[in-house]
Amino acid sequence: MSTIDDQAREPAVPKRDREATRARLLEAARLRFAREGYDATSVRDIARDSGVDATLIFRYFGSKKQLFDEASATDLPAGLLEGPQEELVARMVRTVVDHDWTKYGGEHPLVAMLRSSAHEDARRRIREEVCATYVNALRDLAEGEDAELRAELLSAWMVGIGILRSVVGTPALAEARAADLAPHVAAVATDLLGRPMSGTADREGGSSRT
Amino acid sequence: MSTIDDQAREPAVPKRDREATRARLLEAARLRFAREGYDATSVRDIARDSGVDATLIFRYFGSKKQLFDEASATDLPAGLLEGPQEELVARMVRTVVDHDWTKYGGEHPLVAMLRSSAHEDARRRIREEVCATYVNALRDLAEGEDAELRAELLSAWMVGIGILRSVVGTPALAEARAADLAPHVAAVATDLLGRPMSGTADREGGSSRT
Amino acid sequence: MSTIDDQAREPAVPKRDREATRARLLEAARLRFAREGYDATSVRDIARDSGVDATLIFRYFGSKKQLFDEASATDLPAGLLEGPQEELVARMVRTVVDHDWTKYGGEHPLVAMLRSSAHEDARRRIREEVCATYVNALRDLAEGEDAELRAELLSAWMVGIGILRSVVGTPALAEARAADLAPHVAAVATDLLGRPMSGTADREGGSSRT
Amino acid sequence: MSTIDDQAREPAVPKRDREATRARLLEAARLRFAREGYDATSVRDIARDSGVDATLIFRYFGSKKQLFDEASATDLPAGLLEGPQEELVARMVRTVVDHDWTKYGGEHPLVAMLRSSAHEDARRRIREEVCATYVNALRDLAEGEDAELRAELLSAWMVGIGILRSVVGTPALAEARAADLAPHVAAVATDLLGRPMSGTADREGGSSRT
DNA sequence: GATGAATGAGCGTTCATTCAT
DNA sequence: CATGAATGAACGCTCATTCAT
């Protein structure tokens, strides 16, 4: 009812444009799923957010589940795994802390996806994501015998920081920038990985491609 | 709270039944909410698990949400905050890794509650829990100026470890015992808190057996 | 909207009576399924007809399909298979022509069920019904070698008569009573079964038990 | 009807396309409607079967119902009503039993249409068909007073045989060929019609190859 | 004229919750 | 007071059909 005369000021929303409609649905889905989780999000919610008929979800994505899958496919920040090795951890912190995740409601997508972790499928996605983004890269860096464990411990820290920042909202972490965390993280990482890690990274190394 | 002094005038049996039924509902709710999350759990599920009629949930707790609130009130492991200060972090790790959380489906209740973190209520619970259990105690220990931040960073690690262990299930952490983690944790904690922390704790310090 | 003030003249419809509600649903389902077929009947139709909430269908029957199964379970007219053998065919004709099938919308339930014969389940039901009610009994009576075929031919006639009467509505059959058909049927049956069959049956031999 | 004289001005190719598409839709519709019934068949099913866009159905036929009407117009087997009168019933049996009805999913179209008999339109079609194909021809043959009734009874038998053969699938009839049924049918027909009927027919008299 | 994006009603079903007995 | 019948909103999804391009 409040949208009756919106058509005038809506700038350039093309109607009957398959790609545009698909994109709007995907965008709305990403946000809803991130904020409310899979179960609390209805396809009608997403459709309403997109200003699009709900049946198009099924036309374009097949099912709510498939939409979820597509919506929660994170494109890991380009450049994370490139650049100087000793700055890898600093880049990871940036990814967690400074990166612009507004597309996912302002939270790291991994954290957002935990909200849907009642579903084994979502859990698997999280697992793959954590391994691909953090554990594997860190394991390659770690020296000594229990490299896997230490890589996971460091990964756990990244995830934990994301959670305290956005879900829990503890005061210091919620406000902190990557630069505030860098010295601490570098010290710990150096310790855990058994090789010197830098607290700063020259460039972002984590600008989402989308 | 209104049932606190009821035990005096009970006619022996029917009263205990009421209490027993309430307790069974709570127990079933705790498990379901932890495992499946708030949305994926139906009041009928809980009632069925408890072997009682679903309407009793409304009679006893008012609504599904209130049942959730009551069911997700974690009794933080007794003894966590007692004992030698230098062993505090080691005790925390034990709480996360070795403690028997079968009451909550085998996961640390904080981790389980993340599954329901779409709801502001659950988020508040998590916030309170994290602060009460981890941040506050660690902040008191930390030396130097940004004590809060460092306490939160360490808390984030505890939470992150819990997540990777049970939700994500990364291979090394999923199998690890507190003893495997102790040396790494002690080193990092010593570093972050600016005071020597021990990697072992004499006793559990958090049995809270239910 | 036209039912707003019906509550006054509804004579004795007991509310909150499980059996009564179940019975009303079943009755409405029987009629709808018979008249419109499975696919064209919605659970809301049935609920509306019964003056009952649609969700009770699932409470009491589990699913639309199970309701259909129960609603289409014909109790074959008591007495059909009893009584003098030479009057069996006459009794069958009565079942098809004179029996009061208003419960099924005025048609023989077999004929009504043909409307749902797109579903293999319904087809199986029809098959069982036809064999149990007609073919088996007639085969036992037939003399000579291709008894099965002749029994089926006679059964086909019964079914065909039912269809022309109610679905097609050909003028003579639609008006005919069993007595009008009896001489013709008796002659043919005598011929097909190879033993004398009577054109009259003393008693109805087909009063549905329900 | 508006396309009757279009063939004169066609530009050779595109017109034939339109006709060809229309024909394919009709063919697919015939099959689907016969096999699954009106309600269980969706316009998308038919379009998919034909390999064309679903909206063409509305373009060419107006609505699903109109497509159904057109698709269920049976062309009664040519030659049924021609040929020696005493072989008429034998020809009818052939039509029911031996004729190639693959166009209608292998069943006599009358039988197939019963699946849609919830709709008055379909019922009317069946009525017309039964009268035109069976009752009228047989009435003309019958001697004596209640010729109509006897003609209908014999028609009922034809229809019933079709039903038991394909819908119900009773064992003997499902396998039988016209030749197996001929002697029985001839005897009964002779009896019912009051004039000698032959059990064999020289030629099919109803090919209607499409 | 043909394509396919869009629509809105309706499907079977489950939900949390209320109310009568 | 407890049981369970009842309720109505909402769910994911499919339908026949229309309309813009």
UniProtKB/TrEMBL annotation, chains A, B, C, D:
Coiled coil: none annotated. Gene3D superfamilies: Homeodomain-like, Tetracycline Repressor, domain 2. Keywords: DNA-binding. Signal peptide: none annotated. Pfam families: TetR_C_16, TetR_N. The keyword DNA-binding applies. Residues 19-79 form the HTH tetR-type domain. It comes from Streptosporangium oxazolinicum. This is HTH tetR-type domain-containing protein. PANTHER family: HTH-TYPE TRANSCRIPTIONAL REGULATOR RUTR, TRANSCRIPTIONAL REGULATORY PROTEIN. Residues 42-61 bind DNA. InterPro entries: Homeodomain-like_sf, HTH-type_TetR-like_transc_reg, HTH_TetR, Tet_transcr_reg_TetR-rel_C_sf, TetR_C_16.
